[in-house]
Every structure is written in C-alpha cells, then in structure tokens.
DNA sequence: TCCAATTTAATTTTATACAATTTTATTGTA
DNA sequence: TACAATAAAATTGTATAAAATTAAATTGGA
C-alpha cells in the first residue's frame, strides 16, 4: 500500500483497535452501573477474583496499568468496601491488595456479564475466541519487542 | 465455557482489545512526540487530512468521540496553529474545522508513521489487514445493534 | 556497618473519555 | 410572529491513562 493510503483511518489496524475498545466499553457501562463499577474497576476485580492478595506492581503487570492509574482506583475500591490495602510486613515497599467479603461476593452479581456482552457483540463463540487469540498474540509480539529484559 | 471460566481475564476478548489499545498507543508515543502530538490528536489529523472543513459533529462520528473530548482537543490543535475553528455562517450552531497550511504540511512528517508502527507490531501486511477487517466487522456489528435509528 | 543503587508506591501534570447539563441557534407550527 | 421542540457545541464533573518526579524501604557491595 502507498503511504497516502496507509494514512487513511479505515486502513489502519491501530485505529480499529482503538475505536473498538471505546465502543465495547460503552456496552459495559449500563451493566456495570448496576454494580457501581467502571470498566477499569471491573477488570481490576476480575484480576483479583482470579488471584487475591497481590501487590500493586503485580496487579499492574496483569492489567498493563501503572501505579499512577491503580493507586487512585484502588483507593476508590477501598472506599467502596470492596478491597483492603495493606503494607507487606516483610517488605514495606509493597502494598498488598486483598478482596473483602463484600468484594468476593460481588463476583456472583458479575458472573452473567461476560455472556451478556458476547451476545451483544454478535460473534459466535468460535469467532470471539479466534479474535481474542489473535489479539493476545499481537499483545505478546508487542511485549517481546518492547521488554526484551 | 462455564461462567467462572468466562470471568477470567485471559479468556476475555474485551480485555484483549482493551490491553492492545493501550500497548499500541505506547508504541506511538515516541514517534508522535517528534510531531508534538498525542495519539488522539494524531487520529484527528488523519481524519482531517482525508476530509477537511468538517463540523465537530461529523468529526466525532468519524472518530467515535463526542464534543466533550473534541472541543478541548481542537482548541489545543488551534493553539498549535494546526487547525482553524470557525462557525458555519449558514448554520451558526456548527463549528467547522479546517486545516491550516501548517496542519496540512504536518502530513509529510507523519507519512512514515504507519509503516514504522506495523513493523513494530511484528505482523505481516496480510495478517494486519485480516485483523483490521475482523475488528472493523465487530465495530459494525456493535453499531448496528446500538444505533438501529 | 555504611551508603549508593535499586525498587515500589504515591504524587503531579497533562490529556483523554464520557455522562449530564447548559447555552445558543435553528426549525416547525399554531 | 411567537414559541415549543430540536440540534450542536460547550461546559462540568468524574474517571481513566501515562510520563515524570518524589518518597520510602530494601539490597548489595566496599
């Protein structure tokens, strides 16, 4: 493709990903509103429901977010009574995030969301899995090229 | 898949899209810094390089952004001398955005960016096009289900 | 042991995003 | 012409995001 064609929005993979993210987020908004959560708060809880009592750093690596985003977000979840923030007594630099009973209980109210969203996306389970795997591969490729340690 | 499996981050298409967007944006940051632009400012210019002298509303539909995001962004681009904001004399409710000479000229400095990014993504042209089309289809599906007019 | 280098969170700054509201302009209609 | 309904931007408030800096704790030598 010519440079001029490559500059067009509709030809750009990156713009497609960017636009999709925001349109998908809008699908979540009404569902998450019932739980009093935003999308970022929701994925943070998804991570914690899988693995509780993790440091902010580990959570950040899992979610691809840094402390500048997570610190205020976790304080918000703390104020809502969903998580607890405690310093690791063995290494006081680490802040450990744990779910409260209420935070754990919220999982039951959230468990229908993934299905409801996939239905709204209008993709078959197979199509959704294929696209997810393609994007996961892309994410891995970017990671490898950018943090070669 | 069981509900509990569906709640896991790595099984979620939506999280893959969300994470990809942010990692991709980070690839743009150093390239766009040389032009003094952010990613959102860049895609706004991409839209204007394709079609100049459009209303904020039309620009918003093209970029999937609303006036709450675009108004301050366009004022910023105006202060940088890249665009002009004028009221449509035929309907004073509309603000028309036009490129300045400097805004048009910036296209030449930006024309190498798409290629540089695709190279960093580590996908072949065919893979990138396939993924782009899949995401464009998804975007269309979401649109159809949510604005049936 | 001492202290420089490193690590981890938190803070600050700038820039998105978007819902909800307000302001201004236009249009349709009695 | 009035004026209600509609439309388009702008504004306000809240919540991300990330770069850059700061603060506190730990670690690894000399």
Jot down its keywords.
homodimer, 149 residues, mainly alpha, Arc Repressor Mutant, subunit A, 3-stranded antiparallel beta sheet, 8 helices, globular, DNA-binding
User: How much helicity do the residues of chain A have?
Assistant: 55-70%
- Please outline the major beta sheet of chain A: 3 strands, antiparallel
CATH architecture of the domain at 36-105 in chain A: Orthogonal Bundle
How much of the polypeptide of chain A forms β-strand, as a percent range?
5-15%
Stretches with pLDDT under 50, minimum 5 residues of chain A: none
Give the CATH topology of the domain at 36-105 in chain A.
Arc Repressor Mutant, subunit A
Q: How far apart are the termini of chain A?
A: 34 Å
Query: What Rg of chain A, in angstroms, do the CA atoms define?
Result: 18 Å
Q: Give the spatial strand order of the biggest sheet of chain A.
A: 1-3-2
Query: Based on the structure, what is the oligomeric state of the protein chains?
Result: homodimer
Chain pair sharing the greatest interface: A-B, 64 and 64 residues
Count of runs of 4 or more consecutive helical residues of chain A = 8
What structural class is derived from the secondary structure elements of chain A?
mainly alpha
CATH-assigned homologous superfamily of the domain at 36-105 in chain A = Winged helix-like DNA-binding domain superfamily/Winged helix DNA-binding domain
The ordered H/E elements of chain A are HHHEHHEEHHH
């Amino acid at each position: 493709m010519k440079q001029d064609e490559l500059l067009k929005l509709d030809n750009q993979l990156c713009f497609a990903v960017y636009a999709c993210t925001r349109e998908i987020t809008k699908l979540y908004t009404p569902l998450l509103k019932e739980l009093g959560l935003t999308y970022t708060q929701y994925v943070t809880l998804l991570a914690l429901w899988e693995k509780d009592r993790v440091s902010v750093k580990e959570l950040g690596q899992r979610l691809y977010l840094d402390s500048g985003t997570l610190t205020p977000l976790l304080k918000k979840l703390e104020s809502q009574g969903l998580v607890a923030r405690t310093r690791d007594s063995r290494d006081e630099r680490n802040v450990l995030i744990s779910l409260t009973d209420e935070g754990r209980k919220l999982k039951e109210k959230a468990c229908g969301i993934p299905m409801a969203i996939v239905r709204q996306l209008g993709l078959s389970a197979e199509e959704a899995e294929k696209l997810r795997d393609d994007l996961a591969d892309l994410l891995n490729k970017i990671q490898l090229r950018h943090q070669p340690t």
